[in-house]
User: Fold this.
Amino acid sequence: MTNTHQVGDQLRLDLLREALPYIQRFQGQTFVVKLSGKATEDPDNLSSLAEELALLHQVGIRICVVHGGGKQLSDLASKLGIEQTIIEGRRVTDDATLEMAKMIFAGKINTDILAALRNRSIEAVGLSGVDGNIVHAERRPPKEVLNRETGERSQVDFGHVGDVVEINSRLLSVLLNEGYLPVISSLGADSEGTVFNINADTIAAEIAVQLKAEKLILLSDVDGIYLQPGQPETKLSRLTAAEADAMITDGSATGGMIPKLQSITTLLRRGVHSAHILSGTTRNALLSEIFTDSGTGTMIVA
Assistant:
């Protein structure tokens, strides 16, 4: 029995030793962490994630959390019988969907994340992109979209969907400098105060550039990038921006992975050092990705 205990202790101590150089290297650096709707919907999973975020925060890494909540938005829509249209991984946002997005993103999910962090004694501050004019946006113009199944192109009006014009990081910098952990939901507004639903990956990427972040970490529904979807042995542990571009061009990246990769490659060319795609529902995936040599997801470097 004691033997097993000693082995266990030894393993834990070895892990701490492995983590130490990373802790020293990233102390005082900024990480932008994006949480998917799936990562936040299960209370136990959210609690476990909050613990990992708390640990990063406690060792002196400046954490800024951005979240969407597409999963919860779709669930509420189906409860209320409001039909949803998603094209190329992007949601068309009509009047009713925007109202639900405000309730779910800036209300329920944001508060759930704050409560989970509060449970870990972290002073977190809930914001939407409308607060402090963090996300200045404009309405997305109708876009021509290619239907991959039929090969036909058609104009799509995405409704109340916004594109980021600029990020005002002043409020975020004030909070981070004072030791707070900002939690931002994926809404933005234009100068008239018109509110838009904005892709959370895009907001996270733009904030990462503005804050000169060391890392952008996307906790998503997948645990990395695969050459062949569904085949674990084809997972890429490390990828360069050029290789990611090639995956989009040759069609090996599909669906929602395309906008993700596009925003990441752009981001790396604008100064963020690395981006990570990992599972938002695997315990310790975040800690393992940051503090161990092998990691758990896919790391994309410039």
Q: What stands out?
A: The chain has one domain: 28-301. Residues 28-301 form a domain with the Carbamate kinase fold (CATH 3.40.1160.10). The mean pLDDT is 92.
